[in-house]
Design goal:
By secondary structure, the protein is of the alpha/beta class. It has 5 helices and 11 strands, in the order ββαααβαβββαβββββ. Helix 2 crosses helix 3 and helix 3 crosses helix 4.
Length: 245
Amino acid sequence: MECTTATTTATATAKQYKEVKNLLSKGDSNAKTAKNERSTLILYLSPAKQNSKGINLCPKASNGCLMACLYTAGHGKFNSVQLARINRTEYYLADRFKFLEQTANEINKTAKKTKGELAVRLNGTSDVKLVEQLVSMYEIAENVVFYDYTKIPQKAGTKFLPSLHKYVVCFSRAEDNEADALKVLENGGIVSAVFVDKLPEYWNGYRVLDGDSRDDLMLDVEGPCVLGLKAKGDGRKDTSGFVIR
C-alpha cells in the first residue's frame, strides 16, 4: 500500500457485483512488479470508502496519500480499470468467504507451477488484514511469501504467520505519521517514503534504497532502512508534505 486513498471518476453505483475469472493480477501487469525477482501475484481493490457500503479499506490514509495514491498511476488512470477494482471490492464485502476461497485457489494454482518462491501482495491498493484472514481459513502452498505496505504501525515488520508463511510489511511514511515511521525504523523495520525527484542517500540518518527498482525488494533487505519511491501520477502535484521535497 504505497498509499491507498484517492478520488476517481468511477464510483460504485450499484450494490451488486459480477463474478470474475481472476481476482489476482500477474506481476508483469505492473511496471514495478514486473521487475520482481520472484513470480508475483497482486490484488487491487478500490481504496478507502469507494464501495457501496462505505467501509474504509484504508483506515489510516492521510490527505496527502489521498492525492498521491498509486490508484491513479499507470493503468489505474483508466475508468475501466477503476470500475473493475470497485467490482472486486464489492465482491469481497458481499461474500468474503467465497472471495478468499477464490483467492486461495488462484494462489495455489500459480504456486504449483512456480519454481522457487511466489510473492503475493494482497493489499495492492488497500490496507486490511487480507493475508491474515486467508492463511487462517485456507491452506496455502509452502513456496508462497507475502508482502505489503501499510500505514498501521502494528502491522509493520517481518513475521512468520501461524501458517509459517513469511510476511514482510513495510510501513508507509506520510505527512501525518512521520513519528510512527521513525519508531518503526528505530525498531529495525522498513519504511517507504515518497520523494519528489532524486532519492537521497540517507533520510533522518537511515540509508535509502531504491524502492522503485523492484516491488519485492523488502523481502530481501534487512532493516532499518528506507525504501525511497519517486512521486507518481497525481502525487507529483502534492503540497501536503506527503511527498518529501
